[in-house]
Design brief:
The strands form three sheets. The chain has a five-stranded mixed β-sheet with strand order 1-2-5-4-3. Helices cover 21% and strands 21% of the residues. It is globular, with a radius of gyration of 22 Å. By secondary structure, the protein is α/β, with parallel strands linked by helices. It folds into two domains: 1-77 and 113-198, 2-Layer Sandwich (Beta Polymerase, domain 2); 80-112 and 200-242, no CATH class.
Amino acid sequence: MNNQDKSNSQLFLNQNDILKELFDRNLHEYEFLFENKDTVSFNTNDLLKVMNIFQSNSIIKFETLIDITAVDYSDYGVSEWNAKNANNKGYSRGIKKDSSGRYTYESTKTNYNQPVKRFAAIYNLLSTSSNVRLKIKFYCDDDESPSLPSVTSIWSSANWYEREAYDLFGIVFSDHPDLRRILTDYGFIGHPLRKDFPLIGNVEVNYDLEKERVVYQPVTIKPRVLIPKVIREISNKEDKNA
């Protein structure tokens, strides 16, 4: 770690104490969790209050919203290949074929295995005055119809970021001035970065000779996973040397 990294790390630690003091004073009840050195998780009900504090407070002022991304935690931590349970009858016999990569549009499952709420939005903030970055995470309360308040009134740059999260994950941002798809085509079905969205898609494009135009038709290819989903456990020794 160079001197600049040490300086930024120390500055961030100082701001941790400042953040706790600020939220103790401004919010009656809140969940404040440092997931790692630069990620903080809050209760969804406090989203707008929290973001206003981050943006306007003169001490910690995060002037810039760099990006908004999202996570679908379904199938989180579920592996297809467990070497400990595999036998000597062949590689394929050790695979439990149950990952999202094998779903079809008709056979997507509805029972999800996730340690927390299914969807979360992560806001990447930057304080140019302090040279500090921070990631703020909010979980969506409803797994079936995920939604969060829009922060476009706080950072105007959130407009397209929220549209992207809506398009790819289906998270609805209430009070957004123009919430519509931004990357996928008109009439697109589903949200392609959700774990239950089939990798093969649900329709394919073909040229119809009779109609003399391009048409959509149900997908005809079958999902194929050449490499099973593997979760590698890092030993303490490897972790220390990383």
